[in-house]
Design goal:
Blueprint (H helix, E strand, L loop, with lengths): L1 E3 L7 E3 L3 E7 L4 E7 L3 H11 L12 H28 L5 H43 L18 H92 L4 E3 L6 E3 L4 H35 L7 H6 L1
Antiparallel strand pairs: 1-2, 3-4, 5-6
Length: 316
Amino acid sequence: MKTPLPGYNTKYEWLKLNVFIRWDPSTKKHIVVAFDPKPHITNLLIKHLADTIHSEDPHSIYVPLAQLAVDVQEDAVWRIRDAVRDVEKSRTAKSNSAELRLSHVHDLARHTIHVNETLDLTAQTLHSMIEYHNRFADRPATPPAAEDTDDDGTGSRSIRTTHQQQQARYDRLRCFQGAIQALRLRSVANKDRLHNEIQYSFNLVTQNISNKSNDIHQAIQSDSSVMKTVALATAAFIPMTFVATLFGTQFFLYRTDDGSWNMSDKIWIFFATGIPFTLLVAFLSYSYHRREVFSRSLLCLRQNRDSDCGFLYKDY
């Protein structure tokens, strides 16, 4: 069985309640062997079993053992519940604290899963104990001792007492079985509440990331507006830059003496070289872009992500 330590701080301990029991009919004693118990579990075993270790009833020890298992499991479940309640009360809308809570809550959820597992095992063990007890109770009764017989010698007093003891023990075992089932429901509720806290913290973190993304998007839009303004200003001066560059070549000559312009008959060389180079640069840029699209398409196909590569096929 697993139980968080008091003042839950992610520390816990496993409590082993592995017990071997044998009843010796010749001495009317129970032999109890506990494997690697914690010191306080040993003390609890001695406390619960002190009154039943010497008994003529081989099943009298079932009740204190079941009581011990219920007590330990109840303590574990309610410690988890207290920790869950502390998490719920510390809830805040600040995403930074939500990110810190996620690790803590996930760790607590792991402990809850382990508690559920041990509760299921305890329920199965109690079911087996009740089933075995009922099988033993259905056996034919042994002949009563002389002091247990009635005046008519039928022994009904002994049979009646044994039946009452078996019925009382059966009722208590069923009560403990119901208690374990109730603790299982409480533990499931703890798990659901933790899941709710995990979703809440995750939504806060996601919302914070979304807000930061919006801030980044607005900053990018602001930078884009600035770049657009710079691009428009640059585009406004491109025609004048072209004209100034063209008239700054040696193909045009301005005479200061008479204020006339002379154009060389070799002006065609400017266009014969400028236009092909412009087309070559445009072709190289287009080819590089198509090569990048083709490379990404091959990568998608190798990773078997055909649905994600549809837009690449369209571009290509």
